């Protein structure tokens, strides 16, 4: 009887020990994830919220890498752990946990979702037990009404990254190359290269804009499945005029599709080319709610194209959309003042800072986005690290531009802190 009475206790102890071991393993996995993420992120991320005992790491890469790695970590957190372990998988703080740092590194909107969008997202939580397909239809209808295109030419995705990735899967490969600018947003090129596609990088012009004629020539030089134009460009913020884009569409190879990424276009006064998808079957236009609308963490994007192109994108699978993102997007689209107000706020803070830099001898490329590239006249990675040491996290440099760094435009207060830190690091008057 005595032995039987202790059996439950031993069993409970064994279970607790097993759970504790899994929790410890999970904590170590998150620790490894964080270290890897920092290695693949901006140098400054290693200085903000780094786990105790983790050495600083400095290898740069894109925001997209960090999100992909974080997603892998979330998968680890849900791998059969008990609820108590899942609730606190590790003590690792996220990279932006240090609220004292100014984050000007990921081209995020510093204002977040509008007050109306935030309220709509909160109000939607109670109905998140349903997929709310009808709400997705409302968002689509509101979007196409503003874009003046047919509803069957638009499909919503959880961010514009997904259709961009699908485009690489569908339209690039060993016999279908990709033509991109250099530098530009890199995810598409990385995915195409992973599929065995030849990725032809065409340097930007001296003014930071796409060299569209050279890109068309490159597309004619070898079989090209996709030609990618980010307009305004990331990282430069430079923009290609509508007439130059029209020339590209008229002169590219007949079998080459054009992926036009307009993630930053709302920061510019230039009209969108999205209406062209109603006349062409070789143009895919991407838009996002992540930038000016301030919904980077909510995830909602748009692919606009001929219905046949949309069917090809959908052939890789369809998933429901996050209800709070849909609710916030609908509220944003219904606010006619949101875009012009934020465009003006961004332009004012951007122009003030670029003028300040120019007076101190630091050149910036022309920009119409929520970011700019500045020549810091020294190693860009080291400069970014020094800025982070002074509480301001900026973007990175590129192999083609080792002395130029990208800076996201923050609030006026954040840009004032940027200027103060820049003056200290560069050794120029504040």
UniProtKB/TrEMBL annotation:
<protein>
    <recommendedName>
        <fullName>Aminotransferase class I/classII large domain-containing protein</fullName>
    </recommendedName>
</protein>
<dbReference type="InterPro" id="IPR050106">
    <property type="entry name" value="HistidinolP_aminotransfase"/>
</dbReference>
<feature type="domain" description="Aminotransferase class I/classII large">
    <location>
        <begin position="102"/>
        <end position="421"/>
    </location>
</feature>
<dbReference type="InterPro" id="IPR015421">
    <property type="entry name" value="PyrdxlP-dep_Trfase_major"/>
</dbReference>
<dbReference type="GO" id="GO:0030170">
    <property type="term" value="F:pyridoxal phosphate binding"/>
</dbReference>
<dbReference type="InterPro" id="IPR019546">
    <property type="entry name" value="TAT_signal_bac_arc"/>
</dbReference>
<dbReference type="InterPro" id="IPR015424">
    <property type="entry name" value="PyrdxlP-dep_Trfase"/>
</dbReference>
<keyword id="KW-0032">Aminotransferase</keyword>
<dbReference type="InterPro" id="IPR006311">
    <property type="entry name" value="TAT_signal"/>
</dbReference>
<feature type="region of interest" description="Disordered">
    <location>
        <begin position="1"/>
        <end position="20"/>
    </location>
</feature>
<feature type="compositionally biased region" description="Low complexity">
    <location>
        <begin position="9"/>
        <end position="20"/>
    </location>
</feature>
<keyword id="KW-0663">Pyridoxal phosphate</keyword>
<dbReference type="GO" id="GO:0008483">
    <property type="term" value="F:transaminase activity"/>
</dbReference>
<dbReference type="InterPro" id="IPR015422">
    <property type="entry name" value="PyrdxlP-dep_Trfase_small"/>
</dbReference>
<dbReference type="Pfam" id="PF00155">
    <property type="entry name" value="Aminotran_1_2"/>
</dbReference>
<dbReference type="InterPro" id="IPR004839">
    <property type="entry name" value="Aminotransferase_I/II_large"/>
</dbReference>
<keyword id="KW-0808">Transferase</keyword>
